[in-house]
Structures
1.
Amino acid sequence: MRVVLVEDHHLVRKGLRLLLEEEGHEVVAEYGRAEEALEAPWEADVVLLDLNLPGMGGLEALPHLARKARVLVVSMHDEPAYVAKAFQLGAKGYLPKHALDQDLLEALARLDQGLRYLHPSLTEALLEAQATPGPEVLSERERAVVALLAQGYTLSQAAERLGLSVKTASTYKQRALNKLGLLDTPDLVRWAREQGLA
């Protein structure tokens, strides 16, 4: 397969290139920034895309790159919110950076067959996230309190920022816990971060 690499770390790009060429794939171009990949003329079957890029982020570039080739995200982010968003934006596969080299080759083989690929380590977390209600079940105030808690504010700091009493903020937090079926503040913070509210 003809592959384009969009990854800002030179050593990672070099490692990917060596692995791909060793397996008979052709790396037609490599870029350290998404803007370069979008502006350059190239033809390929697959783009290996990192999400953490300087300038335009990988998620922002993804829909544009997906019009030119199949996109396989290779990212350190393994939170369900990132995975779900990437597929919504047109990715055909998602591979965490802790994956093995054979996982990458398997992902490329699946994409070559017109199939999607999701690394096994992400499947369970994604299914669990889909089973948990999303932010839309919370009221605007409940969401605001939860988002501030997820950013590291204490309940009293969140209340102050929102112009609420601590008791009222606590009520919003408790309602959010009840609606989401969560037990405590750490669970709520984890959920909020997975949903991208932080």
2.
Amino acid sequence: MNLLEIQRRMAEDVRRPLTPDFEMQQETESGASTKELAASYIAPNALLTSFERLEIYNRQYWFRLIDAVSDDFPALNAMLGAKRFNSLVPAYIRENPSTSWTLRDLSSKLPEWLTRHPEFTGKRHLLAIDIARLEWAYVEAYDRKKIAPLGAEDIQELGPDARIALQPHIQLLELRYPVDELVMAVHRAAPETDIVSNAAMAKKQRNRIPLPPMRRTPIFLAVHRFDDQVYYRRVECEAYRMLSALRNGSSISDAIEIAFSGSDFAEAHLAMKVQEYFTHAAQLGWFCRALELQS
């Protein structure tokens, strides 16, 4: 084999999924012996065979990917337990392998992927999806950019047909469970360096974090960044609809109409609510000019 062929051979062998016991597979998909393949381009040493030397790279490649995903979903890990979670993550990665130079985006498809794989979540499937959605929203809120915000005085100068945008870092979620309580409980209970599973690498048994009981109670959340910290803010259904409509490009007047469509608010109460929603959002710097978002 020339150098390019060796590189391609090793890349394929290193990326091959591990066994359920986190060991290198004995055979390839075509039935070839991985021991023979390893011996064809890796020399043994006094301590390790060619297969064992290759297995080190194979395992470390997968452990790094597993840890990258685990880092993003500590609450999902805590809710499902180590056994289920450490079966879920490799299965997800096998279907959604890393295709980017950065591991930041590796977890991006997990919430949607989880909806199609109830076998990993059992009876708490919908709860698990809500947790995954919120934890990925945390990543997005932390990483996405912030644009110069509009102040309350700027918004007052705008007419009803004007369009304003939301900060790119704001994530709006409609959830079936109050999982913000669960996620915050996990973060409070576990040090930042101890919220990943690492079970594949070290197979450590950690004490289970006590989780608050979850009863199905729909909530609406705005996940946002303020002073480099991510916060979860519950909002009313009408505020969620209004903010979502603004994000989707509706004018101010149309967004308000969408928000309160079908509601039985008295006109005076409705005006008070609109003022409340816009005031709070402006104070938190959630609004920006639509043209700046496009630039």
